Prior knowledge:
Layout (H helix, E strand, L loop, with lengths): L7 H13 L2 H23 L1
InterPro entries: SenN/SenS (IPR025004)
Protein name: FbpB family small basic protein
Pfam families: Fur_reg_FbpB (PF13040)
Amino acid sequence: MRRQSTSFEELVLENKKQLLNDPEALAEIEDRIDERSSNNQEKDTK
């Protein structure tokens, strides 16, 4: 049997669709973004 190949772009789009339909994953991503932005603001004030 021949193996079906999937391009990187297709994998990214599929993963993105799955994440957008998962409220728990979205909340976790938002928390990480908030944490990173607050860390960056702290570094900028120093």
